[in-house]
Structure formats: C-alpha cells, structure tokens
Amino acid sequence: MSFRRALALAACGLAGGSVLFSAVAVGKQPARGGEAEPRPGGSAAAAVPPASAAPPGLLLLPPAAAASCPPAPGWIERPAGTGGYWDSNWDRREPLSLINLKKKNEETGEEELASRLDHCKAKATRHIFLIRHSQYNLDGRADKDRTLTPLGREQAELTGHRLASLGIKFDQIIHSSMTRATETTEIISKHLPGVKKISTDLLREGAPIEPDPPVSHWKPEAVQYYEDGARIEAAFRNFIHRADAKQEEDSYEIFVCHANVIRYIVCRALQFPPEGWLRMSLNNGSITHLVIRPNGRVALRTLGDTGFMPPDKITRT
C-alpha cells in the first residue's frame, strides 16, 4: 500500500492537474475559494481510458489515486488532451491560433496561409529578469512604513551593480507599486541610467494560489487567494509571453516584485503545477532569469541567484 500511495503522490506532483498522470480525462477544475467549472458527466472510474491510450512509458494509476490530487482554480487553463506535455500555445500567441482560417483566399490557398502565418510569427527572444525586493522593515503597519532596512539598501546596491556588470542594454524596469519594491527599483536604476521605470499594481505581493503541500505557519483566508490569485495570474498573462511579431530585436526586461509573485510566475511559465510555488525559496535582492524563445519555448537560466552578494549580506525576510 505504501508503494501505491507513493505513486499516487508522484502523479499529483507531476501531472499539473489538467490530464492526470493516471490518464483520467477532466475538464477545467473547480477553484478553491473561487468560481467553479463543471466536470464532464460520469464517474472518475468511467473516465479511465484503456491502457493502450497511455503514452509509452507512463504508468496508469487506479482512479482512487488520481482522485486524491487537489483541484485547480478555474482561472488556471490546462488544456485537455495534453497528458502533461508542453502546451505550445500557452500564451495564446501560436501563429496558427491568431489566424482566422475562414477568411482563407481560395485562389491563393496554401501560399497565402503560409504568408499570414509568417506575419504572425515572433522573431525575437525575450529575457525576463525577475528581481525580489531587498530586506525591509517588517514592523511597519502600513505599506508606506515597510521601507528598506540599511542592509536592504546595501542589497539593492549589490543587485544593481550585478545587473550593470552583465553589459546588457535593458529595455525597461517594471516594478510593483509597493514601497519596498519601489525603493529597490530606485536604487537599482541608479546603476542603469536611462532605463525607463513603470509602476504597476498587478505585481503587488499576495497569495497566488493555495500551496500544495500546505504550510502551518501561513494560512490566508480563502478570499485572499480568490482576490490575489486572479490579479497575479493577470500579471502573468500581461507580462510573460513570447515577443510580439513586430519586435525585431531581442529584449531584456527587469521586473522588481515579490517572492510569491516570482515563484508563481516561474511555475506558470515552465508549465509546472502552480500549487508548488511555495516549495521554492528566494533571497532578498535575488535574480531569476527566464528566457522566452520566438517559438514559445521557455527556459529558466537562474533561480534566486545571490552569488554576487557576500554571505553576511544574504537574507530571506
């Protein structure tokens, strides 16, 4: 029984919730603390396909094991039929999905279609640098009182120096409107003169999605997941995607925000189960580097890098 339970837990961690590792076909899953969407009719047992339907090398688990996986909120889109494999249209910018095939010219046929597809294809690579704010005053009651500590200001200086030393021409800095992120941005920007700064509420700290496994020391109310989760998901959809087809050169963008937001974005961008965001830990002032290729492929270059800081300057508060 312990072996079967271990397999079931492995399935929950790897499947991501759309089409489970056990090959149970489901639709969009109900949101915890939010809106719910119906499943297709029938029991879980009836939805299990024959063993021949499983991709080679995948182990089919019994319905009971699959049913133990937690449901996902309704705003997380997990296309059915992918079996946990990469969704190439994750950002809804796959060229074929941008074309209205009903308007196809019957005279030019495939030639026109190829031309239209080429017109919609991304040409450039986006480099996303996600920076966690520096250490701040935890005793502040309001956001305006949660300013950077002296050590936090040192951390921001070190992060800014590190970014400048990369020799990259950054396009912009987009930062959370919260005080600690704004102050971190101001210090970093001194090392990157001429790079425009943009403030947004979408990147403010919050509770993106109920973590799995849960933790005992941090349990927000369900309404916080419902409100913050939709906003942080909106930040992901607005900022994390392949380059626009009109973009000719590779871009390098900095996002200064918060640990919860960054961890959630990393999970979503890599198409890992977003409920696993709390399994990662990020230091203050750390650098996370995501790369989004023109074909929509995503790679994680670094996660929470603070190797450029002296050991006595590293914190996670």
Summarize the structure in words.
The structure is a single chain. The chain has 317 residues and is of the alpha/beta class. It is built from seven helices and six strands. It has helices spanning 2-15, 63-67, 110-120, 150-165, 179-189, 222-239, 259-269; strands spanning 126-132, 172-176, 196-200, 251-257, 287-292, 298-305. A six-stranded mixed beta sheet has the order 3-2-4-1-5-6, sandwiched between helices. Strand 5 (287-292) and strand 6 form a beta hairpin. Helix 4 (150-165) packs across helix 5 (179-189). The longest helix is centred in the C-terminal third of the chain and has 18 residues, at 222-239. It is globular, with a radius of gyration of 22 Å. The chain starts with a helix and ends in a 12-residue tail after the last strand.
Q: Give the uncertain stretches in residue-range form.
A: 7-49, 64-68
In angstroms, what is the radius of gyration? Answer: 22 Å
Distance between the termini: 41 Å
What's the order of the H and E elements?
HHHEHEHEHEHEE
Number of helices: 7
Strand content: 5-15%
Explain briefly what this protein structure is.
Helix content is 27%, strand content 12%. By secondary structure, it is an alpha/beta fold.
